[in-house]
Amino acid sequence: MNIMFFLTPKHEVSYLYHDQTIAEGLESMQEAGYTAIPLISREGKYIGTVTEGDFLRALSDPNIWQQRDIMYMEQMERRVQNKPVRADAQINDLLDTALHQNFVPVIDDRDCFVGIVTRQRIMDYCISEIKKKTEKMQKHEKAMEAQNELNELWV
Prior knowledge:
By secondary structure, this protein is an alpha/beta fold. 23% of the residues are buried. The protein has one domain (3-128): CBS-domain (Roll). The protein has helices at residues 22-32, 52-59, 62-67, 91-98, 119-154; strands spanning 8-9, 16-17, 36-40, 46-51, 85-86, 103-107, 113-118. The protein contains 5 helices and 7 strands; from the N terminus they run ββαββααβαββα. This is CBS domain-containing protein. It comes from Candidatus Butyricicoccus avistercoris. Keywords: CBS domain.
């Protein structure tokens, strides 16, 4: 299975640019309603992930608070580093990474951000597959029971 099956493409993802001010970044993140959001360059390269905690720590510093309208996102300390995977990565690499992150940024061979894979999307797929297999097993069990009943009638 290809990891692109799980991808939410860049045009459907909220993200921040490295050269936005901290004030602009905070406003964008609040509008998006997420607790963590990718940070990319204007060239499209994935830089990292910004979290609510990063904003809280930064804005509790009086110097940064005063400069929030002129200080850029790339200057803000980020503690969480959501590890990206390449678009051609193996599914196991994606799953290993998703165990530790709510979303996994996906990059191409030029390190450009192409989208994210959410842990929720992976879980939804797994649950769907388990349900399908369970239903198939239940049908098989019912068929076996019916076969056994027929066999008993003929004995």
